[in-house]
Amino acid sequence: MTDTTSGAAGDERIKDVSPLRRMLIRPELGGICGTILVFILFGLIAGDSGMFAAEGVMNWTVVSAQFMVIAVGACLLMISGEFDLSTGSMIGFSGVLMAILSVQLGWPLWLAILATFAFCMAIGAVNGWLVIRTGLPSFIVTLASLYILRGLTIWGSVYFTRQTIISGVSDRAEGDWLGPVFGGKILTGLFQWMGDAGWIATFTRGNRAGQPVVDGIPMLVVWAIVLVIFGHWLLTRTKFGNWVFASGGDAQAARYVGVPVNRVKILMFMFSAFCACVFSMCQVMEFGSAAADRGLLKEFEAIICVVIGGALLTGGYGSVIGAALGAVIFGVVQQGLFFANAESSLFRVFLGMILLIAVIMNTYIRRIITGER
Amino acid sequence: MTTPIVDMRNIKKHFGHVIALNGVSFDVRAGECHCLLGDNGAGKSTFIKTMSGVFRPSEGEMRVEGKPVIFESPRDAMTAGIATVYQDLAMIPLMSVSRNFWMGREPEKGIWPLRTLDLAKADAITMTEMRKMGINLRGPDQAVGTLSGGERQTVAIARAVYFGAKVLILDEPTSALGVRQTANVLGTIDRVRKQGIGVVFITHNVRHAMAVGDRFTVLNRGQTLGTALRGEVDAPGLQDMMAGGQELADLEGSLGGTI
């Protein structure tokens, strides 16, 4: 046998990789290109419509942040190799549950919120447990929970209030310490100052005259940023993140080297439920009411953001930053078409096409990573 | 004679009505390569899964360095120093070599809850270990998917050796490889053996077994047909034992002894 330990020199069979190609296999690339393209596009067609004034920016930022919150959960779950189709139903369910607990049963708001989080994460754990125990695809298991949760939401809402909208949450939020964590705004002083300095538009008449049209950054946006940073850090910088990749890449191979795949997957289902709850709590606090039909189709929108962001539907590959950029693209396009006075139904056409292009790109990228075989 | 690192005695494994293993005895000592040969369906896979803690034997005794043990999970076996490299499930193609290398045993730094991966350390050690095994990487972040089948086996072997395996079980490491890659893997086995690690080499290719084996055990229909030392047996003899009889001998005659 020849000894091959000597070779520190380059292997003549391994071609040098161009920086372009190296960049191409980063999962975020599609998201970065898409974001730039979308901004250029709407800069051209809607640049003078107020889309890039303070109010317009806040408009699409909030919409993007909504997508971002659920996309982070969906992204980590998809990388670990599973889907959660119950996200949308979970949004409706958690909102109504919280409203029933606080408004109908009279619990303090903070207790209602915490109990809702605990209960919804427990449902997420049950989803994960069922997927692991039965070995069924998570697609089927969470499709079942999509219907079960939506049904329970409508039934619960009608049973307690005889209607599908439960209002009165804003009254319960008065003086509560946990409410502002979801419904509040930050940096209001800064925005007032920017308004006074004339950097951003202010109301010129009415009882809010002199106040800036954008009076602070909603907590939803803060949650989105925090979740993206946390998710990215968890995925790329921690041991647990490595296990998430491993569980989705090849669960059996991961098990053989001692990765607790089942625990990882169940935790990711719980995290997905957590993100859905953050979304619905922010929404309920903003509107002051909960409605049983909230969150319709959100599960698919979350998955679209994640796929645009470069994650593979089969798991094991993806990026939280990519998913966040996917959410920005989604939000900017949706609101941008509105600012551009385009026919809003075209949004769906556009979305479908982006999705298709993203998936084709991803398949190609995967072939590059795995050595074009 | 030294105590075997792993000693399996009269192992039986039943799956319902099926008797997969019906009394298998096998041991491996430090610094030797013990080949386990058998045709498809002879019970090789069941046996190594029993040895690596995936299955619990229905009957029989397992000893590690003289002490009886019962493995509840693959983790127990790994803790005892038994590492298994599976034919196709060794690596995750989409992940980098470094991340694969450390998978399940990632080095960390910092204080909880901000403990992070020590990527610099992980990458440096991965590169060193790969170079020792004769694999030149573009970088530690190269995906395993870009490596050849033989290189993947070698990465998996390097990983097991680095993490202190005393016994290395290789499940048909050469069955899907070309000539050159096979030679590389056999070279790796030889190198590992010289470090004092016991190697269990599972194969149905007699020639590969003869190239590196110190002892040979043939498994047929869930039973061991005996163990032979190097030099006591030749390739045709092993071939006959694996086939368990005459059909192959007849066939071999008509094919001119080329199988």
What is the top-level CATH class of the domain at 26-55 and 69-91 and 147-255 in chain B?
Alpha Beta
What is the tally of helical segments of chain B? 9
Q: What is the CATH fold-level name of chain A? A: ABC transporter involved in vitamin B12 uptake, BtuC
Largest sheet of chain B: 6 strands, mixed
What is the C-alpha radius of gyration of chain B, as a whole number of Å? 19 Å
Stretches of chain B where pLDDT is under 50 for at least 5 consecutive residues are none
Distance between the termini of chain B: 36 Å
Keywords (chain A): Cell inner membrane, Cell membrane, Membrane, Sugar transport, Transmembrane, Transmembrane helix, Transport
Subcellular location (chain A): Cell membrane
Function (chain A): Part of the binding-protein-dependent transport system for D-xylose. Probably responsible for the translocation of the substrate across the membrane.
Transmembrane segments (chain A): 29-46, 58-78, 85-103, 109-132, 139-161, 181-201, 213-235, 266-288, 300-333, 345-365
